[in-house]
Amino acid sequence: MDDYSTKIKNSAEHLIRNEFPEKALELDTLVSSEVLSFNEVTKIREEIQLPTADDIVAHLANGSKDHPHSTTAANMNNNGSHVENATAYVFNGTVPSNPLISILEDKLRPYILHFLDSVAIIKLWIQLMIPKVEDGNNFGVSVQEDSLAEVRTLETEVAQYIDLTCKYLISRGELIKKVVKYPHVEDFRRSVQSLDEKQFVSLRFVALELRNHYTSVHDLLMKNLEKIKKPRSNQAHSMY
């Protein structure tokens, strides 16, 4: 067990001293790059490729016998009566995810997982440093507990970033279904564009917050490193 404890301590200090500042700098570079620039918002909105009302009008005007997106069905005319063998527009093929959003998610996911994995090690390291409960100088112990509480708070916040993508994809899928079903309703199409734009802004925020979290954890633990490792080193002096 002693060897395991030593391994955890070495891993935690390596993360704090080396990997966290490296990740913070990488994320700072990412946030400053063109891929997360607000100039990309226009491109984000242009990525949706779905049939429009004009597509359907042209499709019906040209006939649909050999059209890859057509089918023959009994439809209703404007008077409410059935028109046999009328042409209905059917979207054929896969509706892709927004590729620019997918790229950003792929870039950020490793940082989210690395932060959560690293924080699990750091929490255990701090807990292993906490001495047994006894009377005397507990100032160092309170530093350990405060540091542990701060790390746990950031861990909870970063864990929520994982849900961001799932909720976005579900919402986008529901909107896409409506766009395909009601291509003549422009608001549905615009709602998909707005959702993609919102996700882009959210991912930019995640990148900024991850950078800040890596930086703050590194700064907090480095400033209090000696108190965390030796919380009662000054106990003898405090007696006089």
UniProtKB/TrEMBL annotation:
GO CC terms, sorted: cytoplasm; nucleoplasm; proteasome activator complex
One Pfam family in the UniProt entry: PA28_C
Gene3D superfamilies: Proteasome activator pa28, C-terminal domain, Proteasome activator pa28, N-terminal domain
Recorded family membership: Belongs to the PA28 family.
Signal peptide, first to last residue: none
Proteasome activator PA28 C-terminal domain residues: 95-237
UniProt xrefs under PANTHER family: LD45860P, PROTEASOME REGULATOR PA28
GO biological process: regulation of G1/S transition of mitotic cell cycle; regulation of proteasomal protein catabolic process
Record protein name field: Proteasome activator complex subunit 3
Domain of life of the native organism: Eukaryota
Residue ranges of domain Proteasome activator PA28 N-terminal in the record: 2-52
SUPFAM superfamilies named in the record: Proteasome activator
GO molecular function, one term: endopeptidase activator activity
Its job: Implicated in immunoproteasome assembly and required for efficient antigen processing. The PA28 activator complex enhances the generation of class I binding peptides by altering the cleavage pattern of the proteasome.
The entry's keywords: Proteasome
InterPro entries the UniProt entry points to: PA28_C, PA28_C_sf, PA28_N_sf, Proteasome_activ_PA28, Proteasome_activ_PA28_N, Proteasome_activ_sf
